[in-house]
Structure prediction request, 674 residues.
Amino acid sequence: MSLRLYVPRDAGALAVGADEVATALSVAAQRRNVAVEIVRNGSHGLFWLEPLVEVVTPGGRIAYGPATVADADSLLEAALNNAGPHALRLGPTAEIPFLKRQTRLTFARCGLTDPLSLADYRAHGGYKGLEKALAKTQAAIIEDVTQSGLRGRGGAGFPTGIKWKTVADAAAPQKYIVCNADEGDSGTFADRMIMEGDPFVLIEGMTIAGIAVGATKGFIYIRSEYPHAVATILAAIGIARREHLLGTGVAGSAYDFDIEIRVGAGAYVCGEETALLDSLEGKRGMVRAKPPLPAHHGLFARPTVVNNVISLASVPTILSHGADAYREFGMGRSRGTMPIQLAGNVKYGGLFETAFGPTLGELVDEIGGGTASGRPVRAVQVGGPLGAYFPRALFDTPFDYEAFAARDGLIGHGGIVVFDDTVDMAKQARFAMEFCAIESCGKCTPCRIGSTRGTEVIDKILRDEARDANLALLTDLCATLKFGSLCALGGFTPYPVMSAVNHFPEDFGPRPSLAAAE
Amino acid sequence: MQRAPWNRDRAQAIIDEHKHLDGAALPMLHALQHEFGHIAEEALPLIAHTLNLTRAEVHGIVTFYHDFRREPAGRHVLKLCRAEACQSRGGEALAAHAKARLKLDWHDTDAIGSVTLEPVFCLGLCACAPAAMLDGRVIGRLDRARLDNLLDEAGR
Ligand SMILES: Cc1cc2nc3c(=O)[nH]c(=O)nc-3n(C[C@H](O)[C@H](O)[C@H](O)COP(=O)(O)O)c2cc1C
Ligand code: SF4
Ligand code: FES
Prediction:
């Protein structure tokens, strides 16, 4: 039996040299004249250890990392020595604490398998969900999804089962499943990891959705910043078609379902579901007024399910293990698991799938290990560019939709970006306004114009020009944005801005009350 | 990246290849930009005619999206991430360094046409920040030395 190694093909691993390491390993093997099979897997999501090289042994996989080209020779030697000692040896992959502490349901296979091997996918429980679904009525599939408590993982947290039922109940000659893979939030990469590391789970989830609501066609709208995800999904769709898992008579059933992909063009607002639909139709990505809901009047005016990648990729596990098994995890109205993404200035950056409920402090300090710079954590932004900045004082907030909302924040798509004490929160507030100005679709005046005014007002505050009046103006402006915007781009930009002002007032200069007290 | 010079027949062929798609405009524009490096003014009436849109509508679509270029880019396109996770790891200072060394602002191309500098808002590499992309190649854990190597490469 030849030696088998795993070196990820995930863009996050490629970005730190995984291709070069894989090549160096195979060159080293040729030089020694030993047969080595290098499998290019998805990433386990332990990005501080990428490129992570794994060696297959009878006792399981042994991890080494972060590997460089210079390590290739000695790594191969260690691998040949029964996965023996090496300065980079981390022990059994499954025992790495960051991985061991997780509850991997949606990401069960990610990192373990060859993403484009259907055999590998099936060997690890793939297509069991579809098999179960095909034995049920459409209504029973939707009931399972409803019972699981799954809520949209794209940000808004809307119950997935209810959305599906609305589309199922709408009569129309054509319905669509649209997968939102626009993943524009800074600090998030869960969609990218699934598309690159386990693409069949998304295809399976979309297929189940199509069968459940009576849609025969699906689209995946992937952002152009993700060329590797586009390539992997395209390849997986080709394989699924050849194996009759897409097309007419899916998996030998009476249902037809096929998927096409479309690539975005660098507009953040196209992640908003109605702007996304306009963009899919080949138009400018303008936000539509709701109602009508996409579930009634969606793509090409047909009933359409729009779901995030992770929502759809969670469906196979719900169907195969049962709604109750999923629902058992979590707290309050946040059921199941969430792939939390630890990013930015964090020691252990990566993807951590867990039941809802750990506190922000546990996630940042214990799981994330604090900052990468070694300096104190000062602020974390949760939920992307429209999410609030949290100070340490709020680190007792549990990771749960309602708990974050109660503290004027949001969990969004599950991204946590960590900042150390060198951060200037006024600058972060200014960036939030600037980002809104750059990405506004232009439909509402407060968002289009107000955001630019916002950056100017913050500049004045920073220059100490009529600070109190301008702080009051900024607060007013945020209220206008909040209540005068059609979508959350304008509506939620006040979250990062006002959280910075309220939790970190010292960065906006001395306040009147403080100045008076001095 | 080598780009083909404008060719009306080739452009029309690309447009025809995509016209049957649902929502054909974006796939069409991506394919045209891939071939020619940018969306030339001459392409707009061809698209408009094929999709039965007005030229103004096509103009509106092209200008809405940050990805579509109206002017040729340099031989290399360097995208630096400006979003929050990269900011937290010193991305801004790296961007300032790149701008100073290239003597360029965002979206500009140098005089000899070797490199275009673009901002990007997140590449999904936020756990390996700061991040960049050079001609479609992803780069993480960027620091001054790695950036200088990229700039040397892009300058060629
Ligand atoms: C400005 C803006 C950007 C958004 N970006 C995304 C995105 O990139 N991905 C996503 O799934 N949802 C995004 N959303 C949320 C979508 O509008 C929508 O709620 C979601 O796709 C529904 O799917 P879900 O129920 O499975 O979460 C965004 C919303 C807004 C307002
Ligand atoms: S809030 Fe901004 S992005 Fe949203 S619809 Fe209005 S203008 Fe467009
Ligand atoms: S914020 Fe820079 S890669 Fe995500």
The beta strands of chain B are 76-81, 115-120, 132-134, 137-139. Residues A 269, 287, 440-444, 447-448, 485-487, 489-490 surround iron/sulfur cluster (ligand 2) (CB under 6 Å). Chain B has two domains: 8-64, 76-153.
